[in-house]
């Protein structure tokens, strides 16, 4: 997942942190599936694609954590994603955009796909598409940042995957000078990042398929 590290300081060096709120996964799953809910998946994706800057932190949380309850998400082990990652490694940005847009259409809230698209559009100096997807990426990141404050297990930041954890670590400026400890949880794994007596708690979520 190291291919996107170079972009993160650019993306988040001036980003603020939003208000923290407790995540209710049952409510997220129910809301996304209900056609009457303001947090229905199709409604949120329509807003996310059309007006990404207008999403509030709760809507961003529903989109980000709601991926765990969908069967159409693209994983990094998927051959289609591997092909996209290979095109990125070869600096074939035209192929990155072609393949990335196809995967984005299937899984628009996938942070890995968005990061590759951002790098490709930036390399080709396509500012409009870069800023568009940057707004989407920032909205999802705000959802993660508003999941906790990282000061304890009870208020740990919550992420869907180890790859997303490394994205958050870069946002928080947590690097190689930190030590990591891990602790299993019933529905995930806590990683505790420590430096000079200060600890940051991040929980990688595990959901049943």
Detail the topology: elements first, then pairings.
Elements: H1 5-12, H2 25-33, H3 41-50, H4 57-66, H5 79-89, H6 93-106, H7 111-123, H8 127-145, E1 157-159, H9 162-171, E2 179-185, E3 188-195, E4 198-205
Parallel strand pairs: 1-4
Antiparallel strand pairs: 2-3, 3-4
Helix pairs in contact: 1-9, 2-4, 4-8, 5-6, 6-7, 7-8
Properties at a glance:
209 residues, alpha+beta, 2 domains, 4-stranded mixed sheet, 4 strands, 50% helix, disordered N terminus
Could you please describe the fold and organization of this structure?
A four-stranded mixed β-sheet has the order 1-4-3-2. It has helices at residues 5-12, 25-33, 41-50, 57-66, 79-89, 93-106, 111-123, 127-145, 162-171; strands at 157-159, 179-185, 188-195, 198-205. Mean pLDDT is 89; it is low at 1-6 and 13-19. Helix 1 crosses helix 9 (162-171). It has two domains: 17-145, no CATH class; 157-205. The longest helix is centred in the middle third of the chain and has 19 residues, at 127-145. The radius of gyration is 17 Å and the shape is globular. A hairpin with a 2-residue loop joins strand 2 (179-185) and strand 3. The protein has 209 residues and is of the alpha+beta class.
Question: How many helices in DSSP terms?
Answer: 9
Largest sheet: spatial strand order: 1-4-3-2
Given as residue ranges, the uncertain stretches (5+ residues, pLDDT < 50) are 1-6, 13-19
User: Main sheet, how many strands, which sense, barrel?
Assistant: 4 strands, mixed
Indicate the overall shape.
globular
Mean pLDDT equals 89
């Amino acid at each position: 997942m190291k291919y996107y590290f170079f972009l993160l300081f650019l993306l988040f060096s001036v980003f603020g942190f939003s208000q923290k709120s407790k995540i209710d996964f049952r409510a997220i799953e129910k809301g996304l599936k209900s056609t009457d809910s303001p947090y229905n998946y199709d409604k949120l994706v329509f807003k996310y694609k059309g007006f990404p800057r207008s999403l509030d932190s709760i809507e961003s949380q529903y989109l980000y954590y709601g991926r765990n309850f969908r069967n159409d998400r693209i994983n990094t082990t998927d051959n289609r994603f591997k092909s996209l990652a290979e095109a990125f490694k070869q600096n074939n940005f035209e192929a990155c955009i072609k393949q990335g847009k196809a995967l984005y259409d299937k899984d628009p809230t996938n942070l890995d796909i968005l990061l590759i698209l951002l790098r490709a559009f930036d390399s080709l100096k396509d500012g409009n598409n870069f800023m568009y997807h940057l707004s989407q990426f920032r909205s999802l990141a705000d959802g993660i940042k508003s999941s906790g404050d990282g000061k304890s297990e009870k208020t740990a930041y919550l992420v869907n995957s180890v790859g997303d954890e490394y994205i958050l670590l870069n946002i928080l400026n947590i690097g190689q000078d930190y030590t990591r400890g891990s602790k299993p949880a019933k529905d995930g794994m806590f990683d505790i990042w420590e430096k000079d007596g200060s600890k940051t708690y991040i929980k990688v979520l595990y959901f049943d398929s």
